[in-house]
Amino acid sequence: MINRNRSFKEEREQAVERLVGMGYLRSREVIRAMKMVPREEFLPESLRKRAYVDTPLSIGYGQTISALHMVAMMADALNLETGQIILEVGCGSGYHAAVIAEVVAPKSGGRQGHVYSIEIVPGLVHFARENLRRAGYEEQVTAILGDGSLGYFDQAPYDRILVAAASPGIPSPLIEQLKGDGILVIPVGNLYLFQELLRVRKEGEKVIREGLGGVAFVPLRGKHGWKTTR
Ligand code: SAH
Predict the structure, then answer these.
(1) Which one of the listed residues 27, 66, 93, 117 is annotated catalytic?
(2) Atom of ligand 1 nearest to the CA of 164
(3) At 23, which CATH number?
(4) Cα of 216 from ligand 1 centre, angstroms
(5) Contact 72/100 with Cβ under 8 angstroms?
């Protein structure tokens, strides 16, 4: 097992260096976090050996853990800092939440922020909690069962919000629950195809959107999501 863990560590470092080389990652803190968080702990046993292949992988219930470059791109676009309070919509495996937690609430100490991550599939909330516990992020990340298209009012407002599923539009509760100088990153577009990753900022009453490129995410469900059963 020790050898296996060592080779996972090497694979992880190489995968992150590749992402840096390809221009997906610039933030030093996100680079450090991605080199630390063991993606293999967030996968079903049979897929662990593929942990550092840069592709989405199945986590059951028709859902996927996002590809490494997508986790990198979104985390980079959020301008994360220690101490921030984050909302993630779509906890899935808990991996992305753990990477963000390692930036806003590093294990090494210092200012401790927190990640609230909301997930609509009960089995995945359980899966994420187990994964976060094994990887040592249970104190920095709270996985919550619920409809994240409504945000998570209890801990609002948030410094940063990220949505890991594609939405038909920007759900109004997410704008309302974002701090005045906050950033929201969300894929918006059609079902399965032609979605754009948006970075959204509030400036007073104005909402400013910036396109970050084309992406493909599973659909956002719930009140402000798609009416789909998948
Ligand atoms: N961030 C995850 C990726 C999960 S994929 C990871 O690192 O593994 C997107 C997730 O969004 C799926 O688990 C899906 O069940 C969830 N989801 C879809 N609609 C949702 C909603 N309205 N509220 C909360 N979660 C939702």
Answers:
(1) 66
(2) 9
(3) 3.40.50.150
(4) 13
(5) no
Per the structure, how many domains does the chain have?
1
| 32, two tokens | 């450090």
Residue nearest to atom 14 of ligand 1 (CA): 90
pTM score of the predicted model: 0.96
Cα of 184 from ligand 1 centre, angstroms: 16
Give residue for tokens 């704008």: 175
* 46 counts as catalytic: no
Instruction: Give a yes or no: residue 227 inside a domain.
Output: no
Structure confidence at residue 151 (pLDDT) = 98
Q: Which mutation among 69, 115, 121, 230 tests ligand 1's pocket best, with the greatest number of atoms within 8 A of CB?
A: 121
Is the residue at 220 inside a domain?
no
**In ligand 1, which atom is closest to the CA atom of 225?**
22
For residue 87, the model assigns a pLDDT of 98
Angle at 38 between CA 59 and CA 144, to 5 degrees: 55
Question: How far is ligand 1, taken at its centre, from the CA of residue 123, in Å?
Answer: 12
N- to C-terminal Cα separation, the chain? 37
User: Quick check: is 24 in a domain?
Assistant: yes
Atom of ligand 1 nearest to the CA of 223: 22
Residue ranges of the chain whose pLDDT lies below 70: 1-3, 192, 228-230
> Per the domain annotation, does 172 fall within a domain?
yes
* Domain hosting residue 196, numbered range: 2-215
